[in-house]
């Protein structure tokens, strides 16, 4: 396995032509690449930031078989599918050879660790684990009891300012303050009915649960957010259960979500609703100054 086995491109269509079948074959494990490339196709190449995204495919030795895929939407860390240690070394060499700067790496836990170690050997830049995550899949849905008073409804144009504010608060809480523009995020989610609000009987929104558009038979619940002063009342669980129910009613095969393993409360809640572990992931930051403080938010 050599660095040349990694094919890098800025052409989304080229990437999907090469890696689309590979990604769709395991939609749960590849949910980040599937949902991100879908968002780029729907909303444009600059949806995640002004820098051009970069895509990568690890191809076999002349057999045309795809063995792994990479996606980098700056300023976010690059995300990669599962790799062997040899393939991780080849990726670090390829990125360094092309002088492609990455702020970090995310992916299956062992893979992210291997790439971070290879990057340090190749460039001298040390990485720091910023978040340990667990991917869950919905099994049998259970609505948490007692259910808080109120109801769920789909966010619409009248909620745009609220969504922008809450998404900004969420991004700051999980350390993505330099990430996606809250206005663009709100517009994209409203366009496909991708945010459910839980509101009290008097119509006051108190929590939100988002969901990505369906692609390759899967959706991902993200983000889930309740303002700090309203937590501990069951609002997030009710909103998450409702978006999960709606996705299942729509016939979606795989309903997924990520949790921060540093937050036992959210992990316990989602298992209570019926989510079961699939795999562990990690996010590394290169040149970072220490672990991220977390309040349990999930990836955007």
Write the layout of secondary structure elements.
Blueprint: E1 6-9, H1 12-25, H2 31-43, E2 54-59, E3 66-72, E4 78-80, H3 85-97, E5 104-108, H4 109-123, E6 127-138, E7 151-154, H5 160-173, H6 182-191, E8 195-199, E9 205-211, E10 218-225, H7 235-249, E11 254-260, H8 264-273, E12 275-286
Parallel strand pairs: 4-5, 10-11
Antiparallel strand pairs: 1-2, 2-3, 3-4, 5-12, 6-11, 6-12, 7-8, 8-9, 9-10
Helix pairs in contact: 1-2, 3-4, 5-6
Overview of the molecule:
The structure is a single chain. With 300 residues, this protein is an alpha+beta fold. It is built from eight helices and twelve strands. It has a twelve-stranded mixed sheet, with helices on both faces. Strand 2 (54-59) and strand 3 (66-72) form a beta hairpin. Helix 1 runs antiparallel to helix 2 (31-43) and helix 3 (85-97) packs across helix 4. The radius of gyration is 19 Å and the shape is elongated. Residues 289-300 have low confidence and may be disordered.
- SSE pattern: EHHEEEHEHEEHHEEEHEHE
Strand order of the largest sheet: 1-2-3-4-5-12-6-11-10-9-8-7
Helicity range: 25-40%
**Contiguous helical run count:** 8
Query: What summary fits the major beta sheet?
Result: 12 strands, mixed
Summarize the structure.
The chain has 300 residues and is an alpha+beta fold. Helices cover 35% and strands 27% of the residues.
């Amino acid at each position: 396995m050599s660095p040349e086995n990694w094919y890098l491109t800025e052409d989304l269509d080229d990437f999907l032509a090469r890696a689309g079948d590979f990604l769709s074959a395991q939609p749960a494990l590849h949910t980040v690449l599937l949902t991100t490339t879908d968002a780029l196709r729907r909303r444009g190449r600059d949806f995640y930031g002004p820098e051009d995204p970069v895509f990568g495919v690890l191809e076999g030795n002349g057999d045309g078989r795809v063995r792994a895929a990479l996606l980098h939407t700056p300023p976010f860390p690059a995300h990669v599918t599962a790799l062997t240690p040899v393939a991780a070394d080849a990726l670090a060499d390829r990125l360094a050879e092309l002088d492609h700067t990455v702020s970090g790496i995310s992916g299956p836990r062992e893979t992210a660790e291997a790439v971070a170690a290879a990057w340090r050997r190749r460039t001298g830049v040390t990485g720091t684990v910023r978040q340990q995550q667990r991917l869950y899949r919905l099994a049998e849905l259970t609505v948490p009891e007692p259910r808080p008073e109120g109801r769920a409804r789909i966010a619409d144009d009248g909620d745009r300012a609220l969504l922008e504010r809450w998404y900004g608060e969420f991004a700051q809480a999980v350390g993505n303050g330099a990430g996606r523009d809250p206005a663009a995020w709100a517009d994209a989610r409203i366009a496909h009915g991708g945010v459910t609000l839980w509101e009290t009987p008097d119509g006051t929104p108190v929590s939100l649960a988002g969901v990505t558009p369906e692609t390759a038979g899967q959706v991902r619940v993200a983000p889930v957010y309740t303002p700090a002063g309203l937590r501990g009342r069951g609002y997030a669980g009710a909103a998450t259960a409702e978006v999960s129910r709606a996705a299942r009613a729509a016939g979606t095969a795989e309903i997924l979500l990520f949790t921060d393993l540093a937050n036992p409360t959210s992990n316990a809640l989602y298992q209570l609703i019926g989510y079961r572990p699939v795999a562990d992931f990690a996010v590394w930051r290169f040149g970072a100054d220490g672990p991220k403080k977390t309040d349990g938010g999930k990836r955007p």
